[in-house]
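Shipment paperwork, digital attachment
Item: protein structure file
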Amino acid sequence: MHVKVRLTQYDLIEHTETVLADGQGILNDTTLFYSEKDNPGVRHEIVLEEKHLVIRRIADIVSETDLIIGERSMARVLSPYGVMVLETYTEEYTLGEGKITAEYHIFQGDAEVTHQKLIWELKGVQT
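Attachment content:
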């Protein structure tokens, strides 16, 4: 089904807020598809499961971030130069009617490189 997708990223290290997507998307049984607001050629596929979320960003450089509530997992970045694997930890993931929230950290070795909260707001979702 077609839905309106608004994705807001809250960088909890830099204390900034950015709207990454604000437009049309497609939601099927377990996957949300949409493009970035400022880069319409960049696609996102979000796989939604009860306790597991997979964020795929498909562009010249592809990233796939696995988020499992309360667990460590992996993020992979694939570029023409090779694959970089980073560790993730998910603090929060909620899948609600018209809203998806995920708060997580990304680590490179022992150093935290990202701590962010993502909120997807979906309009036109039929239950």
